[in-house]
Structure formats: C-alpha cells, structure tokens
Write a structure and sequence with these properties.
seven-stranded mixed sheet; 14 strands; four-stranded mixed sheet; Arc Repressor Mutant, subunit A; alpha/beta; Metallo-beta-lactamase, Chain A; 10 helices
Length: 292
C-alpha cells in the first residue's frame, strides 16, 4: 500500500485505496492527482515525494469525495502547493460539510461526520487558472459526482477518477454511487471510445482500454433501473424502494450505506421521472412512486 509505480516516462501512480497520480515535470517538480482520504495519506505521499527529491508543485482534485481530497490540507500546509479543481467540486473542497449534508439531505448527524465523508477543508482554485504542462489535458467525467474531471498526462496516461467500478465491486455491492444517471451514461459512452497508452481508474486495476468496464457498469445501471421499475409496479415510498433494493441484492444496511445507496437510488428515481418512466403522487402525506 502507498507504493509508487511508474507507468510511463514521467507518469506514476501511488497504489492505495483511491489511486493517486503523479506527473513529473522537467525540473523535478511534480503534479499530484488527488490526495487520499486523510492527513495520514498526506504524510505518506509527502514521504514518497521527498524520497525521490521531488517538489510538490500542485494538486489536481478530480472531484471532492473525501477519499480524494483528504490529504489536501496537510500537503498544502507542508509544501505551499496550490490545489485545483472545477465547478461545484471547488465548493465541496472548501466546505466539506457539504458532502455529508448533501448525502443525508440535512445537517449530518454524528455517525456521518467521519473522515470517509467529511474531509478537512482546503483552499482550492479553479482549474481554469492553472497553466497546464504542454500536452496535459483535463476532460469532464460527469455522473459519479457533480463536476468530476479526468487528467491525461503528456505520456498518454489517463487518470479516470471514479467513472467506473470494478467488476468485483459491482458483483459484491451492485450499487455504485451515482449523482446524475443521465450524465453517467453519457460518460460511459465517451470513455468506451477513448484510446490511450494506459487508463488508471481510482478504485480498480490499471487497464489498457475502458471498453469492458464501461460495458459492465452500463449493464449494472440498466439492471438497477429494471429492478426499480418492478418495485414501483404498485405505489411505493422511497424507503420501501430502498429496503427492497437492499433485500434483492442481499445487502446489509448501515448509516453510511443508507446515505450513499439512498442518494444513488434517489438519482435513479429522478432519471426515471425525467424520462416519464415513473410518476409520483402525494397520498396521505406520503410521496409515492409508480411505474407508468
């Protein structure tokens, strides 16, 4: 864990629960892609940087989930590096209470105020203000989170953030977090056609093509859509839908899974409502869902 692995002339990744990218500039400065889930991750990253006689120039956050920004504050405090991201992700980095509050739909209770959902705040600038190295590219990967981005290094290596889950994770948990189902499906269509030297999703193996993972993630989305449609054949509340999804997949709920899977199922319901596949009504002060 936290092993530095070289994948191209100047491109590396740090192997950890959420893989981080490292791109080495000509003057031994480096750009880090994401920063792990806490200050301990930041310490380990800084140790790797120091052991290689590198200087941390900047951090690019692909998105603002706590496991991708948790090392921001430690690293910026220690090195003075600047941190960049885009859109709504910037607000979530600077005010990280927004993540558990958004997931819960209100003030996050004590069981949600932990490092896996609630990072330390960090000062972040918009990526448009960062002069990228020649041939480095930033590209949108919306769907999993609000304004998630990927990073292509000049070595033709693509850091793909959380745009796909591994086949193993999908088989075990079935419900990967999705904020916007429509945008997620568009992203899967896009990455399926991408060509590069190597692709590095944050939570699965390094691969040479995104085609297979894009396909199995899309298949799982459509499977969950069909499950929800069947559950909604009769008028049903959100809580009942969520319970039946967990029961159908033999999943065990805890408070963190309740907000992560619950938020995702609500996103599916919004997608189905927007596409006139389900409808809603208020009955006896209950919001009910039903397949059209």
């Amino acid at each position: 864990m936290f092993e530095l692995i070289q994948v191209a002339e100047n491109t590396f990744y740090i192997n950890c629960p959420a893989k981080m990218g490292v791109y080495r500039l000509f003057n031994n400065k480096v750009i880090l892609v994401d920063s792990g889930n806490d200050k301990d991750a930041g310490r380990k990253i800084l140790k790797i940087i120091n052991e290689n006689n590198w200087t941390l120039e900047a951090i690019i956050n692909t998105h603002s989930n706590a496991d991708h920004i948790g090392g921001n504050k430690f690293l910026s405090d220690r090195t003075g590096c600047k941190i960049y991201t885009t859109g709504i992700e910037k607000a979530f980095c600077e005010f990280p209470v927004l993540e558990p509050a958004f997931l819960f739909g209100g003030f996050p209770n004590k069981y949600l105020r932990h490092k896996f959902l609630f990072a330390e705040p960090s000062r972040v600038e918009d990526i448009t203000g960062f002069i990228l190295p020649q041939n480095m590219e930033i590209f949108p990967l919306k769907g999993h989170y609000f304004d998630m981005i990927g990073v292509k290094t000049p070595d033709d290596v693509y850091f793909m953030a959380d745009c796909v889950s591994s086949e193993t994770i999908l088989e075990k948990y079935h419900i990967s977090f999705i904020y916007d189902v429509a945008e997620y499906l568009k992203t899967l269509d896009k990455i399926e056609q991408m060509n590069g030297k190597v692709f590095i999703p944050a939570h699965t193996d390094v691969i040479e093509t995104m085609k297979h993972l894009a396909g199995i993630n899309r298949q799982k989305v459509f499977e969950i859509i069909e499950n929800i449609k069947q559950i909604c054949e009769e008028d049903v509340s959100f809580e009942e839908i969520l319970k039946k999804i967990f029961d159908n997949y033999n999943l065990t709920m805890d408070i963190t899974q309740y907000v992560l899977a619950g938020s995702t199922i609500k996103s599916y319901l919004s997608y189905l409502l927007d596409n006139n596949i389900v409808k809603i009504k208020i009955q006896d002060n209950n919001l009910l869902w039903k397949t059209v």
